[in-house]
């Protein structure tokens, strides 16, 4: 057996969807090399394999599991207190570049464990503070969690609640400013400076230059600071700032730069005279935003629209869990109105909302605007399979995300077998209704997908397993018999006739 066949068989078996727990657990053995790490990170795993990886003596195995986006995160809770700080850090922020399109939140108990940890693990590789920094940048903390912490009995967690000051209700802010614990009061006062114009003006010079646009775009500004922005021509943040005074908004609506006028045009606090003026603007983008003005009646609605405009059909910005607080999210009726609007931008907004009713989903799936259809396919759980397939074929940027969706069609792809794009042909080659999988295709990925097609007979699979061009796909074929999987591993893992005793102990979930 050549080394190349060994690696191909190991990788194929590791990602064989029909491989049972006892097969996969053998791949956690050191003899399997990097394959065990890839398996723990990149595929769904049975409970017994998760249990074995959770208590594996090699921290890299546990660290790979911490980055697994296919496993229910509640199953990964033990890793939040792992002896290795590197494992904890990978659970706190599992995302390697590029970011996944869908960023799922961590359960509250894991978040609480991280935020109350007294150390960064026994190995001393990272500190608790560094792990929290990773967590804070991971987008895995939903805003609702910060609101839930505002009334927590632990003062340290009430302090953490101040991290997202603007997401808290007015009552919660007031409660924290008047908290019985002086440290909480101090933290709340420190965060509340964003709503104090004089203090914002005083603090701005000490803020790093790259953070100043955020301050100018979100904080309450003094008249002197507003004037300074006009003098320095740094008015872009003012156009979006909810605290910008009315006289400054009027000046911005007539700014010589079209982009500034565009950002002002859909503000919910824009007066009717300025709306009428901007609807006649020379710039089409300004006129478009002004036409939307009747829709963003609240800042939450304005923000939702603003996050959609200008991204284009290739947008792969991360999707985070929607905030469940109705005070921070537009109403279902508003999204429904967007779905039937004559403005494509508003239909794109509706298509991005994961709770849009099925009837409207069906309508938007047939929309003339491609970006509406793409957003619906990538974001809505009820998007029809034919739409998911269409977007896969036409938009390569979205393929890796679409393949993770439960509704993606597993059959009905045979008409694509002659497609010029090999990635599309590989999709067709895996269709179990295909009469003859193209195992001789010139492209490696197509051959691998064809060799993994479950319609192949055991006799054909044996021939494909012996060919380096198709060996990995054949080893990943779900119709491969389990005894044959074990036999392949016997040959790969130092010729062992049976799984190592340590692997059997791991399968039961006990320490190896």
What would you say this structure looks like, in words?
The protein is mainly α and 512 residues long. The chain has helices at residues 3-14, 21-26, 34-42, 47-54, 59-66, 85-92, 108-115, 128-137, 143-149, 155-161, 170-177, 182-191, 197-203, 212-218, 223-232, 236-240, 246-253, 258-265, 272-278, 284-291, 299-306, 332-339, 344-351, 358-364, 370-379, 385-394, 399-402, 422-429, 444-451, 458-465, 471-475, 482-492, 501-507; strands at 102-103, 319-320. Strands 1-2 form a two-stranded parallel ribbon. The chain is globular and about 80 Å long. Residues 496-512 have low confidence and may be disordered.
Largest sheet: 2 strands, parallel
Overall mean pLDDT stands at 91
| Order of strands across the main sheet | 1-2
The beta-strand count equals 2
Rg is 27 Å
**Ends: how far apart?**
30 Å
The proportion of residues in beta strands is under 5%
Number of helices: 33
- The secondary structure category is mainly alpha
As a percent range, the share of helical residues equals 40-55%
Mass-distribution shape? globular
Task: Please mark out the parts with pLDDT under 50 across 5 or more consecutive residues, or reply none.
Answer: 496-512
């Amino acid at each position: 057996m050549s080394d190349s066949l060994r690696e191909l068989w190991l990788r194929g078996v590791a990602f064989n969807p029909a491989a049972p727990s006892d097969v996969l657990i053998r791949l956690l053995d050191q003899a399997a090399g990097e394959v065990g790490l890839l398996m723990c990170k990149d595929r769904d795993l049975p409970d017994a394999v998760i249990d074995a990886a959770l208590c594996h003596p090699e921290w890299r195995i546990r660290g790979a599991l911490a980055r697994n986006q296919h496993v229910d995160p509640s199953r990964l809770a033990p890793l939040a207190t792992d002896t290795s700080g590197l494992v904890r850090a990978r659970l706190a922020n599992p995302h390697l570049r590029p970011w996944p399109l869908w960023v799922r939140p961590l359960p509250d108990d894991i978040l609480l464990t991280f935020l109350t940890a007294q150390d960064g693990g026994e190995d001393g590789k990272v500190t608790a503070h560094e792990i929290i920094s990773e967590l804070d940048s991971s987008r895995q903390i939903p805003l609702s969690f910060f609101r839930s912490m505002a009334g927590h009995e632990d003062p340290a967690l009430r302090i953490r609640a101040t991290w997202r000051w603007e997401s808290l209700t007015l009552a919660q802010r007031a409660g924290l400013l008047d908290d019985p614990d002086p440290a909480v009061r101090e933290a709340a006062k420190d965060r509340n400076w964003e709503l104090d114009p004089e203090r914002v003006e005083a603090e701005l010079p000490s803020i790093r230059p790259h953070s100043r646009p955020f301050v100018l775009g979100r904080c309450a500004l003094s008249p002197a600071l507003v004037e300074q922005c006009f003098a320095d021509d740094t008015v872009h943040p003012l156009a979006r700032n909810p605290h910008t005074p009315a006289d400054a908004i009027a000046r911005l609506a007539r700014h010589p730069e079209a982009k500034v006028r565009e950002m002002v045009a859909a503000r919910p606090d824009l007066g009717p005279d300025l709306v009428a003026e901007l609807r006649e603007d020379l710039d089409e983008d300004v006129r478009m935003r002004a036409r939307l003005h009747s829709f963003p009646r609240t800042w939450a609605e304005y923000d939702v629209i603003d996050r959609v405009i200008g991204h284009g059909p290739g947008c792969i910005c991360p999707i985070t869990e929607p905030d469940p607080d109705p005070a921070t999210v537009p109403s279902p009726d508003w999204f429904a109105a967007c779905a039937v609007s004559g403005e494509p931008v508003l239909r794109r907004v509706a298509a991005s909302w994961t709770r849009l009713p099925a009837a409207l989903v069906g309508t938007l799936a047939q929309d003339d605007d491609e970006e509406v259809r793409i957003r619906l396919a990538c974001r809505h759980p009820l998007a029809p399979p034919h739409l998911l397939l269409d977007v896969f074929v036409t938009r390569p940027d979205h393929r890796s995300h679409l393949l993770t969706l439960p509704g993606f069609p597993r059959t009905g792809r045979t008409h694509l077998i002659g497609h010029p794009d090999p990635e599309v042909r590989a999709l067709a080659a895996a269709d179990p209704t295909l009469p003859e999988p193209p195992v001789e295709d010139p492209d490696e990925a197509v051959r691998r997908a064809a060799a993994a097609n479950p319609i192949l007979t055991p006799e054909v699979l044996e021939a494909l397993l012996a060919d380096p061009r198709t060996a990995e796909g054949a080893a990943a074929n779900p119709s491969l018999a389990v005894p044959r999987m074990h036999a392949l591993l016997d040959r790969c893992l130092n010729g062992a006739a049976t799984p190592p005793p340590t692997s059997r102990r791991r399968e039961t979930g006990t320490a190896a």
